[in-house]
Amino acid sequence: MKCEICDGSGYVAQTQSCPICNGVGYVDEASQCPDCGGSGYVPGGDCRDCGGSGTLNDEQCGRCRGSGKEDDCRCSRCEGTGQITQRRDCPAEVSVQIRCEPCGGTGTIPDPVPAGGGGGGSGSSSASAADCALWRQQLAEKRSYRETWLQRRLDAQNEYDAATTQLELVRASPDSTQSEITRATNLVNHWEAKREEARKTYSELNDAFRDLEFKILNNCG
User: Fold this and answer.
1) Which of 44, 47, 158, 193 has the most crowded CB, counting CB atoms within 10 A?
2) Low-confidence spans in the chain with pLDDT less than 50
């Protein structure tokens, strides 16, 4: 029958942090400064002594040596580095397809053999040894999958707590810029979403695990 976990596709979607921005939601990219052309310097203005004439009191201006211009100045836009940083939006999370563990990527699991076989009896059900072996194997896989998501849930909680503490420190600092506050806030939101995803997935897997465990207890003795 069709695997309920992957709905028969053999794969399940899993959300992961974007490998480009590490889940922050944007990336800062360096590019050549348009004001100085990457040199880090821009031409100076008119000489402050001679007003751009090149002469002072009918003699060559000593400050600009007759050029009428100040020496090149450090570019204020890039602070002399020749590069500026531009922010580009980036998806904080990406969805990837991973193989479904309960069905092994096949999309199907064997149909259980109807229990009992008809006769009055005591009303208790029993399954074949093959079915019981299969269910126990599936239970072990579900247990492993459930434990994986439990660890992810704990990790996400720890990251959320750390991000929340960092945000409080950034907000409390008088030297923090709006960019730093925004980045810290985005990180808190990211881990809050990851925590909720892990909680929901773990809950669903735990319910499926308990249902299968109950099925084995009632049919396999």
Assistant:
1) 47
2) 115-124
b (16+ CB within 10 A) / e for 103-113: beeebebeeee
For 132-179, write each residue's pLDDT tens digit: 888 888 888 888 888 888 888 888 888 889 889 988 998 888 888 888
CA distance linking residue 15 with residue 93, whole number of Å: 6
pTM recorded for the entire structure = 0.44
